[in-house]
Design a protein that fits this description.
It contains five helices and five strands, in the order E-H-E-H-E-H-E-H-E-H. Helix content is 57%, strand content 15%. The chain is α/β, with parallel strands linked by helices. It has one domain (4-120): Response regulator (Rossmann fold). A five-stranded parallel beta sheet has the order 2-1-3-4-5, sandwiched between helices. The radius of gyration is 19 Å and the shape is globular.
């Protein structure tokens, strides 16, 4: 199953070119041209990763991330023309997983997406292993309580 990516940017050229590049890698891509619609899609569609511009109409990328982090931990990469170090530090501190400034290399964007997805997958696997161990422990305790033995 291919990863689902939501790309939110108000620049139609970026949406088109990046979407084509990501689809050529076998990923499913949904595009949105403003932060408000992007946030709705992120909350409804449960993507594997989001790529957000910062300067967008209706809701900027920082606000989208802030609202998204209330209920979701999906990986987020900022892809933005805001190249000030303070903006980058703020974006990372708010919960972005990476920060790429425009102009950018599509090849490097693809590799950074792969890296973030890989880290996210490992984190989810670790969480599931911990959860399974806790469930097994509880089942053993229930077995001991009900049967008096294992």
């Amino acid at each position: 199953m291919s990863e689902k990516i939501i790309l939110v940017d108000d620049d139609s050229n970026i949406l088109t070119s990046v979407s084509l590049a990501l689809k050529s890698e076998g990923w499913s891509v949904e595009t949105y041209n403003d932060g408000e619609q992007g946030l709705i899609a992120l909350q409804r569609n449960n993507p594997d990763i989001a790529i957000l511009d910062i300067k967008m109409p209706k809701l900027d990328g920082m606000e989208v991330l802030k609202k998204l982090r209330i209920s979701s931990n999906i990986p987020v990469i900022f892809l933005t023309s805001k190249d000030d170090e303070i903006d980058e530090a703020l974006g990372l501190r708010m919960g972005a997983d990476d920060y790429i400034t425009k102009p950018f290399s599509q090849k490097l964007l693809i590799e950074r997406i792969r890296a973030v997805l890989r880290r996210s997958s490992l984190k989810n696997q670790t969480y599931l292993i911990k959860l399974y161990k806790e469930i097994i422990y509880i089942l053993i305790q229930i077995g001991i309580f009900v049967n008096g033995r294992i």
